[in-house]
Write a structure and sequence with these properties.
The chain is an alpha/beta fold. 38% of the residues lie in helices and 19% in strands.
Length: 315
């Protein structure tokens, strides 16, 4: 058995932690969005990769969900005194990771190779694979003009009204050759933002095709519960794009690609509408407040992959 989990952001990392607790390293591969990556202060910053790495290493900030626990900010404070850019805060411990990544990339390592060495150094044995070793950059179109993703997300705190998205470099990027499509028995789309965490992954040529050719069931977990996003701007984006912020609309977004859809118990009354899209469904608690919640959801998703999700297999 090899489960492929597509992920990005804090919500995705939570489910990945649950999967890592119930599956051995050889049984699951995490494919991570790198559309959020950017160059900052001379460093290659890979926020979603780092969030997952810290999460699997039990080193993530338990309050924010991103960054390292027990962080200090002397570097950022000193940089601010010198008039440097500090809108994207790099903690002192986190800075060490970025220095190490820069060293590895400068020595000729791919992003995949650098990620593996950093993860190993933090005691992570599960495979974390960037979606591509080629640069793909998410551009957020807003009423005020286009913004690089981190400028929209961090600097402007998601305030501008969204009108659409582009993934620069995706068309010419190559899917990560380390992804073992031929061994995949099930695919999980984590409860990440569909537009800026999952769509960039699926935009890389070869990703959709590799998953389809595997013949494996594909299950998506809704990031919308009761009309709201558990984490991040998903619901806000949907509303600004003129799409109702509902679990049904998320299911519609994925309907041509997935075979099954996981709905939170709060939205159980939407199950019929999702099934009408031709998708198998399961209803469970998807809000992950504790480690036990993460593990329970992982087990529910795996059981769904092994059972009901098979019924919706796409030709």
């Amino acid at each position: 058995m090899t489960i492929l989990a597509l992920t990005g952001g804090v919500g995705g990392a939570k489910l990945c932690l649950g999967l890592a607790r119930v599956l051995a390293p050889e049984e699951v591969v995490f494919v991570v969005n790198t559309g959020d990556d950017f160059e900052h202060l001379g460093f290659h910053i890979s926020p979603d990769v780092d969030t997952l790495t810290y999460t699997l290493a039990d080193a993530a900030n338990p309050v924010a969900g991103w960054g390292r626990q027990g962080e200090t900010w002397h570097f950022t404070e000193a940089l601010e005194e010198l008039g440097g850019e500090t809108w994207f805060r790099l903690g002192d411990k986190d800075l060490a990771l970025h220095v190490r990544r820069r060293e590895l990339l400068a020595a000729g390592q791919s992003l995949t190779g650098a990620t593996a060495q950093i993860a190993q150094g933090l005691g992570v044995s599960h495979r974390i694979l960037p979606m591509s070793d080629d640069p793909v950059r998410t551009l957020v179109h807003t009423r005020d003009g286009p913004l690089a993703f981190q400028h929209y997300f961090v600097r402007d705190r998601c305030a501008p009204e969204v009108t659409g998205f582009d993934f620069h470099g995706a068309a010419s990027a190559s899917v990560n050759p380390a992804i073992p499509f031929e061994q995949v028995t099930g695919v999980v789309i984590c409860p990440s933002n569909p537009f800026v965490s999952v769509d960039p992954v699926l935009a890389v040529p070869g990703m959709r095709e590799g998953i389809r050719h595997s013949g494996a069931p594909v299950v998506a977990v809704s990031p919308i519960v009761g009309g709201a996003a558990i984490k991040g701007p998903t619901a806000k984006m949907m509303q600004e794009l003129g799409v109702p912020a509902t679990t049904v609309e998320v299911a519609k977004h994925y309907a041509q690609f997935v075979t099954g859809f996981v709905i939170d118990a709060v939205d159980a009354d939407a199950e019929g509408e999702v099934q009408a899209l031709g998708l198998a469904t399961t209803v469970t608690q998807t809000v992950m407040r504790s480690l036990d919640d993460r593990i329970d959801l992982a087990r529910a998703v795996l059981a769904f992959l092994d059972g009901g999700a098979q019924a919706g297999l796409k030709s």
